Amino acid sequence: MEVKEDYLEVGVEDSSNTVISNRISTLKLKVTNRSRITFDNVYLCPPREYFEPRSVCCRVNGLRIMWGGGKAEGYKLLTPGDSSKLVPGSSVAAYFLLYYPFRRSTNLKLKLSLRDSEGEIGEVEIPIKVESHGVKEYIYRPRYKPVLNESLLMKVEDVLKSYGVPEVQTFVWQIFPKVHVLLDGKEVALITGDVGSGIGHASKVNMKEDLFVGFLRGGNGLGRWYWVVRVWFFWLNRSLFDEVPDAERVELWVNPDNLKVDWLITDRHWREVVFKGPVERAKVKIVGGSFSHLDRIFRSYHPPVPIGMEQVYVSPDSRDPGSEIESIYFI
Question: Is residue 322 one of the residues assigned to a domain?
Fold first, then answer.
């Protein structure tokens, strides 16, 4: 998929334009500067007419498109080191979160434009294939290498037949914002801290819980399997109390034999971070920062931080399309 001859080229990575219905899916794109020009402050964004009012997201034919980085204009192309310059020959990875809430299969077209301060550079159309499958939706799919490993389909099906599908529930207390995460009635995580800026904004925090079957790396064979509870937090509403809109995940790898949290995965500025248990209940705190500008105080959201769990892995910056993200899971 080429945006403009001799300018910028956009391609889909890891076949990530396959979306599983009723799951948050990651669309990973690789943008390469094929020109002799250095581009600065380039945004990749859907058409403005699809943007939702007072929110930093959009909806196209039922498909919701969200992006990180906190920029209302769209996804800003930044290289590792947070440089906004795309020099000739360089490439950068861009990520969108896609959600199709309907349990049906369909094919869609997602138009994205590349813009800088001088206007539109080019436009690309990404074909999106939405699949609805009772077993496939439970295959664990990594965040920054969103490969859907269909070779695991039979193994996941065997787990579901043997154990059934556990129920995932979340409960939000808004007066002193905190989130309880339950798996089959057992609390597996308590998330506190800057969940929302007061009663009003806490009610605007959108959450989505997904359940997967994940497999650990193992010396022989597949290692052991886990229930993976992935909880997404979306701060998408514009708010006077927030620095930028944001999206964060907390991923709990729960041992099916005792429902303890053996591992926890989250993100830290485009890097995947792994923490090791086991713990009876993961305690996670979202630590909000603040800064002042023109005599006004703005709040910001930072990645969730587990308490009492050992950090064992931090990935390379995922915005580098050549980075190898090696985590506890295997693809």
Answer: no
